[in-house]
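Page 37, continued from 36.
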């Protein structure tokens, strides 16, 4: 990608609604999980995809726990609980990639990023 194209892409993303940006991040991580699922069980893509998904969910939990977060308490608690279930699954010797993909897709859709 050229420098001009990269700047244009960055500007377009910066103008995007924050919820759509968040949905885009979930879709990208989910794409990595899908690609890793197609590989061998010990494939390095699986390790990277799980690491990226872990970072995503840790960031989500951190944002939800921030005092400035205006999301309703019940919704924050529910999403944190979901994130912990995702992290428990990722901690398994053989994580269920279909489960992880499904959760990420549901969250992306909920953010308005489906399609």
């Amino acid at each position: 990608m050229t420098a001009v194209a990269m700047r244009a892409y960055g500007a377009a993303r910066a103008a995007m609604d924050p919820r759509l940006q968040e949905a885009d991040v979930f879709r990208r991580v989910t794409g990595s999980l899908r690609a890793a699922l197609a590989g061998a069980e010990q494939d390095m893509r699986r390790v990277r995809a799980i690491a990226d998904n872990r970072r995503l969910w840790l960031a989500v939990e951190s944002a939800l726990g921030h005092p400035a977060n205006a999301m309703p308490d019940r919704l924050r608690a529910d999403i944190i609980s979901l994130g912990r279930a995702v992290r428990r699954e990722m901690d398994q010797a053989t994580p269920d990639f279909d489960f992880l993909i499904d959760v990420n897709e549901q969250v992306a859709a909920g953010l308005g990023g489906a399609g």
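The radius of gyration is 15 Å. Flag for discussion at group meeting. The chain has a mean pLDDT of 88.
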